[in-house]
Structure formats: C-alpha cells, structure tokens
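step: validate -> pass
step: tokenize input -> pass
step: predict -> running
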Amino acid sequence: MIDWTNATSSQEQPAGLQRSKCVLGFIPVIYYSVLLCVGLPVNILTAVALCRLASRTKKPLYYYLLAVTGSDILSQLFIIFVGFLLETAVFHRDVPKVLLQAVSAAEFAANHASIWSTVPLTVDRYVALCHPLLHRQISYPARARRIIASVLALSLASGVPFFWWSDMWRNSHPPTALDSVLIWTHVTIIYFLPCSLFFVLNSLIILTLQVRKRRQPCQEEPRPVRRLGKTTAMLLAITSVFSVLWAPRTAVVIYHLYVSSVHRDWRVHLAYDLSNMLAMLNTAVNFFLYCFVSKPFRNVVRDVVLLRSWPSYSGHTAPQNQTPNNNSISSLYSGNNKRSQRDSTPLSPHRARKPS
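step: predict -> pass
step: emit ->
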C-alpha cells in the first residue's frame, strides 16, 4: 500500500520522463527498522497486559483496546515489515506483479482494521457517558467480541478492491479513472469518515459533560457530576493523534492525484516519504498513552515484565460479580468518578420494591 522508494522496479521509462529520486536515502530504512524493533515488542507487551485485564475484569473497554493493539500489530507486520523493509529495502529487485498486488490488498486491510477498530471504542465511550442506562444494557464482553469480529471482517473485505491499486512509484502514466476511484475510496475510509465520526462523538461527549457541569449549581441538592475522566481524555488523545499524524499523507495522496505525480516530482516524493513515516508512528504510541493514563495498566505491565502471575495486581482490579448490566464505566476512572456513578444510579426494581 505504501511504498517509499522506487528502487525495486526495472521498468523502462518513456522518453522524456525521469523518475524522481529518494532524497532521504537510507534514512527511511533506519527509521522503519527502529520503529519495528521498538513498536512491535511494545504492542505485544500491551496485548498481553490487556488480555490479563480483560480476563480479570470482564470490561468491554479492554476488549476494544485489545482490538486496537492487535490491529496495530498487523499494520506493523504487513505495512512496515513486508511493505517497506522486505519489498523495497531487502529484496531490492523486481518481484512478481501479482505478489505486489496481493501484499497491497493485505496492507490496506490491516490499515483499515487499525483505524476502524478505534471507532467502536469511541462509540462505547459516547454511550457510556451520554446514555449510561442504555450502556448498562447493551455493553458486555460477548457483544464487544461480536462487534470487534464484525469490524475486522469488514476491514478484511475492504482491502480486496485495492488489489488493483496503482503503484505510485512504478507507474509513469497519469492516474486513470480507476485510480481516482480507489484513491478517493482510500482517503475516505482511512481518514475522512473515521475523523468525522471521532469529531462528532467527541464533541457530543464534551458538550454533554459541560452541560451537566453548568446545571450543577442550579440544583438544590448538589450531586457529583461526572467529569472528563482519564479514560475519556485517553480516547480524545488517541483520536487526536491519529487525526494529526494521518493528515499529511492524505493531503499528499490527493495532491498526487490532481497536481503532480510522486513518480516524477522529487518534492512530492519527499513529502510522501515523510508523511508515510509520520503516519506509521501512529501504530506505536498507544502504549505510552495507556501507561500515562492507567495505573492498573502500569501495574500489569510491571507484572508481565517481571514474569509475575496475574493475581499480584488483584488489589487494583478486584474481581466483582458483575452482570452485563453494570459495565458502563471504565475501570480506568478515578474513585471520585466511581462514587459519582453510584450516586447517580437509580435503584433496581428488586431493591426498590417494598416488602409486603
């Protein structure tokens, strides 16, 4: 899907056309090698820690975060390792066109899965904060697993049309009508549509919390109002980082389509190299966000690194006999937010019934 060098092609160029050269030289090879050597172990460590938390707490949040981490691992394997390093840096030779197209489809599928696995997490947080009673009814691990499976299946299917993706580096002809359709489909799936959903849902979350905060002084008997907790802040950080890191690449792809070709203009070539490097950084930053936000996550990571068994952090994530109807608030919330939830939760029918 993303090729940062054109050294693997030996196709003859038409007269009068000269290929753009990679200005960065071996810098992308070093960058992607370091990113893979650091990002892949970090994501594997994140997956192990989230598996422990998910099995211990049965919180849907951890299943969604685990799906994001697994998709990032697939992106690092298919896009960085296979697409960037093996195809262009290690092989450094012509490869069969069918193999390139098959790898391209796999890269697109992994990329779509990495991005769209964040969408169910955003929807889950929106429902939990804006419609907590509904969230208690519809959010539970089995449903979360079904949603994740559906997203991954759709992401895999969405990569199939990009088997016919035109290689920007190796094709000297101007973009065709098929190229235009695939490029606009690509930027819509990986950027415009998810970013629109993130913007709308995050805006509703912030607006709802602000309205509740303004209404609080007007109440005769004040109740604790749910604040912008660390989980919501982490969600905003994840979606904001994605929007910033992927914006340059989206702009360069559209520029390639309508203004100047990556194949012919070294400046577009350079911009495409840098934007790809920036976009792939998104697959390795979530671990640090989780560590910054969640003390239970840091404790589990410490236990995994020190090869401790999972009961050693049971004090931070104590088991609760929970049903699917009481999983609305993340275990990453602070104690104040948990008390806020208990104060604002109505009594169940069994507790409200008076003895006859």
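step: describe -> The chain has 13 helices and no strands.
step: cleanup -> pass
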